[in-house]
């Protein structure tokens, strides 16, 4: 039985071109990019070329690009770095459906007596610009709003919020689920900081990026080196940075084709479920195909099936999917994203996230639907 991978929001298969670009760098760039000798200079050249390519792909300046170990570190660096100069009880605004690597740092800020204010969420899983502006105060020191939600695919009005916020208030944006799915242009978004992780867009695991607007004050989390202007010290992973840059360029270059392919797959998936199960399922989040929804993420509830039980059944049937963020996959608690949307308990506890990727085919989708429908029927029969 072949495995069907429908969990691309958790991680994606490494792009062969990224791997091929990384191998010679790992073999040839043996020097430390901070060293002055020829081997160090060669490594530095590879690193700065990768930085230039990332900047060009995302509409940033090269000196605004910082390589990190992933989005978790990048988000922590942005949140703690931007608030380091603020004194509690300074006000922080954030959406309650942010990824755990944003939510948990915000909880740490709350424990340090920052006033963390959670924004209201619509039943479609979105924050409205007016709701953000209504909560802004004189002592607001940070606003956090992700670009695309990791569980529902709901797009957020980041650019509109950025245009209306007073210029002295930083806006942080987690764009991990947006790269390669929608256009992402740092300057056009007008955010202060933006983060992403390479393995979400077919790059290598273990490297991510932080874009920080020129003039933004980001205090470091770590100390002990001068690398990357001291903002993110430590020897840079040259080969990983190259792999990130190649995967990013590929994602941006093929965005339109990929999106069309994924939208067709998503429609086929939902139509197949409808034919197999009738009305015995529901989609959580924005309506599929609407301008504020990504076609790659399908959060589906199957009333009468506990999501944890169904997930095990699907895994045994060779269908890889999830109930939410990979960073909280071990949790038995209901999805905080769906809770924030006001999803009823029975629907909430039967939700499964299917996230699609560009390597899937029509045949993969048809086979996945067949297996999913069979598992749903079996779980319902068992009660």
UniProtKB/TrEMBL annotation:
User: Where do the Aminotransferase class V domain residues begin and end?
Assistant: 5-366
> SUPFAM superfamilies per the record?
PLP-dependent transferases
Give a single Pfam family match: Aminotran_5
UniProt KW keywords: Iron, Iron-sulfur, Metal-binding, Pyridoxal phosphate, Transferase
**Could you say which cofactors this protein requires?**
pyridoxal 5'-phosphate
InterPro entries with a match to the protein in the record: Aminotrans_V_dom, Cysteine_dSase, PyrdxlP-dep_Trfase, PyrdxlP-dep_Trfase_major, PyrdxlP-dep_Trfase_small
Give the catalytic activity: (sulfur carrier)-H + L-cysteine = (sulfur carrier)-SH + L-alanine
Q: List the molecular function annotations (GO) for this entry.
A: cysteine desulfurase activity; iron-sulfur cluster binding; metal ion binding
Q: Which family does it belong to?
A: Belongs to the class-V pyridoxal-phosphate-dependent aminotransferase family. NifS/IscS subfamily.
Q: Which PANTHER family match?
A: CYSTEINE DESULFURASE, CYSTEINE DESULFURYLASE FAMILY MEMBER
Name of the protein in its database record: Cysteine desulfurase
Species annotation: Fimbriiglobus ruber
